[in-house]
Amino acid sequence: MKPIFFGALLLFSAGAQAQDYPIKPVPFTSVHVASESFWGQRLQASRDITIPLAFSKCESEGRYRNFELAAKALSGQDTRDVKVKGYSFDDTDVYKTIEGASYLLQTYPDKKLEAYVDSVVAIMAKAQEPDGYLYTARTMNPAHPHEWSGAKRWEKVEELSHEFYNLGHMVEGAVAHYQATGKRNFLDIAIRYADCVCREIGDQPGQQRLVPGHQIAEMALARLYTVTKNKKYLDQARFFLDARGYTSRRDSYSQAHLPVLQQDEAVGHAVRAAYMYAGMADVAALTGDKAYIDAIDRIWDNIVSKKLYITGGIGATASGEAFGDNFELPNMSAYCETCAAIGNVYVNHRLFLLHGESKYYDVLERSLYNGVISGVSLDGGKFFYPNPLESMGQHQRQAWFGCACCPSNICRFIPSIPGYFYQTNNRDLYVNLYGANETSVRLDGKSVKLRQQTHYPADGDVALTITGNQADKFRLRLRIPGWVRGLPVPSGLYSYADDVPQTYSVKVNGQTVEAELEDGYFGIERKWKKGDCVEIHFDMPARTVQATDEVEADRGRVAVTRGPLVYCAEFPDNDFDLGTLLLNQSPQFSATYKADKLCGINELATEAQTLRFADNGKLTTTDVELRLIPYYAWNHRGSGRMLVWIPQQLRCTSPALPPTLASKARLTASTPTASLSAVNDRLVASSADDKTIPYYHWWPKQDAEEWLQYDLAEETVVSQASVYWFDDAPWGGCRVPQSWRIQTRLGNDDWTDVAATEPYAVTRGALCTTRFRPVKASAVRLVVQLPKEHSAGLYEWSIK
Q1: Is the peptide bond before 730 cis (omega within 30 degrees of 0)?
Q2: What does the pLDDT average to over 368-382?
Q3: What is the pLDDT of residue 107?
Q4: Which residues contact 778 (CB under 8 A, 6 or more apart)?
């Protein structure tokens, strides 16, 4: 599919017709985002690049072909020779892309795109079985389905089949398509599959008592209820939640270790968890069940108080793509999956609709401006899966992934952003996000029109103009962000480390007005007239943030924020080694707007120092100017050093060391990767579980011989080699090697094993050193035999 020009005016999907939420979101159809604004640029990138790219990948990667093969099987054609490839959830890439495209279709009618979507829906319809079941990973070859699917329906739905997960994304896409076009073709497909699940799954006689292995069906079925008003879908969503912890699946990875109403800590796979928590918030809001309200409130408090990154990301570890322990928030190894950040937005949005407190939008905004949009490049064409807070250059956005959940999730989420700006409750109009737009809302059935003018988040000045009012008197409720009230997040997890004064002001028609904040909102109730203007000013200085001392990874370090944005230091802006950096104790920042840099940013600058050991061993310092950019904009100018948490205490920085034989050598490998530079960066792990420094590995290779090689700067006599092995047991795929040895050569001679005078140690969590008879060499090679059933890796290899 060729790129299509889409518009930036979008349709709100999540809860647009849900009248049962205590607070009602304003439909996306009513929010017109200014094309040159911060969000307008991102919507245009989604329209021009992301969605056309996703459709093209659905074609090239065989997503449509899966539906076609399933249709052939249903028509009686022989598909027994078809090999089911890919993942059992590949169908969802199609559903998510249609969801994103549907928002655009509503605002910018495009007959070509609409016909394209309809043609895809027609293919899907032919792949649906007579009773509504739609799951191509089985239907295309029932005799030999996908290896994760099981021999019959639902057999592995609590493990890896993803049958309910596919239903969830199908419903989300179908509802969006229905709301955008008014057509029922996709919606009817989703309803038939939902009805199939409702018939076969439950606690009634003849039904199977099963829950989703990967959650999302819960929140999707709640959404289907809000559109159809058929309570059986809400009941099914609640069944999936009520039954969790009581079926055969009982583990923390899938949040099934306890019944959901007994849970009080965010655990396990972060995306699955966030989707489940969003479903819990839906059930809490749509039923008013106090037990559900209390449970989701406890879990939210645990996340925000102990497991939230300053970027709004969640999910600390790659092991299980999961939440870590309380206060376990490493930076370089932070997982912070893009999908998890999107899930965090879903949870906090629903909790606001339930409770009406600004703290949920404080978290939502933090996630939105940092942890979410860092997951997609500024042009909309490349994606991060994890979003680390520190890098040595081993992280790069990719054009796509085999497991494409993050790109396709970005595809469906970015177009939905305008619907998070406003909400209503009787005659209250909430303004929760700030950005240039125009909106038309209804308060008690009466029309109110509003125009918002601002360069936010570039500055903190906002002008809200009433452009029409048939509602007479109503209350405008303006969110005063936590960051302007001295709260970077609504908990004690992070606090400001400086004493920089910060305040806000509100004027109506040029006159300053005062009001006591209520749940974080500045309320103005009056009879509004066309032309009335509310001017809001938020002070927006750069500020330093510190983590509670319980977060070990951030001790002695500070992060820099300005408004809702988190900043980072990146190598292209700083001509020194960021690993040797030490920030001043009382830094003063300047902010300079640069329109031609990274699509327009405020660059921050401050004085700092770098540290190094001279050749004589003395510690020396050099004054430097440190420049910082918004975190969302990193990794657009090549791969290199980046850090969010900047050392402010000596114990946290790493002075540059004198060069060594290894650091001066040219490093090559049998398997070169982006992380190869970790081998001779002179950083040695503090323990086997050190997540603060980079490492090199051979994953997924196993039971093979691999090598690393130093070509020395000059011929040198060597007699010792030391290796610190990377071993991520028990969850990861790397272990200490089966064996290793050192070889040398001189000039063009053959490689020769050294004469070791002591054993080659393979100890986890220790520097393994071997000595050998001195030998003159121009090159040294480390030869590694990988374990039979695991791979291997290392933090550092030094020679003397």
Answers
A1: yes
A2: 97
A3: 65
A4: 711, 712, 714, 715, 745, 746, 747
Mean per-residue pLDDT, 180-209:
97
Tokens of 194: 């939902």
Q: Which residue has the tokens 């610190």?
A: 724
Per DSSP, the residues of 190-225 read: HHHHHHHHHHHBSSSTT-B----SS--HHHHHHHHH
In angstroms, rounded to a whole number, what is the distance separating the alpha carbons of residues 246 and 239?
11
Q: If you average pLDDT over residues 355-372, what whole number do you get?
A: 98
Q: What is the mean pLDDT of residues 307-327?
A: 96
DSSP string, 396-455: --BS--SS-HHHHHHHHHGGGGGGGSEEEETTEEEE-S--SEEEEEEETTEEEEEEEEE-
Percent of the chain with pLDDT over 90: 87
Q: What is the pLDDT of residues 64-73, one digit of tens each?
A: 999 999 999 9
Mean pLDDT of the chain: 94
Distance CA 47, CA 688 (A): 45
Please report the pLDDT score of residue 9 as a whole number. 25
Residue 632 has what DSSP assignment? G
Can you tell me the distance from the alpha carbon of 100 to that of 57, in angstroms, rounded to the nearest whole number? 15
The two beta strands, 437-443 and 31-33, are: antiparallel
103: amino acid identity, one letter: Y
Q: What burial letters (b/e) apply to 677-712, b meaning 16+ CB within 10 Å?
A: ebbbbebebeebebbbbbbbbbbebeeeebbbbbeb
Q: Does 706 qualify as catalytic in the annotation?
A: no
**Residue linked to tokens 């860092």:** 374
State how far the Cα of 378 lies from the Cα of 260, in Å rounded to an integer. 38
Q: Retrieve residue 768's tokens.
A: 């393994």
Q: Out of 99, 265, 321, 706, which one is annotated catalytic?
A: 321
Q: Residue 159 CB: number of other CB atoms within 10 A? A: 15
Active site residue 321: yes
CB 244 within 8 A of CB 267: no
- Of the residues 58, 198, 339, 405, only one is catalytic, namely 405
The string of pLDDT tens digits covering residues 745-781 is 999 999 999 999 999 999 999 999 999 999 999 999 9
Asked if 607 and 626 touch (Cβ cutoff 8 Å), the reply is: yes
User: Quick one: pLDDT band at residue 3, thresholds 50, 70, 90?
Assistant: very low
The angle formed by the CA atoms of residues 502, 505 and 510, to the nearest 5 degrees, is 150
The amino acid sitting at 398 is Q
CA atoms of 733 and 702, how far apart (whole Å): 9
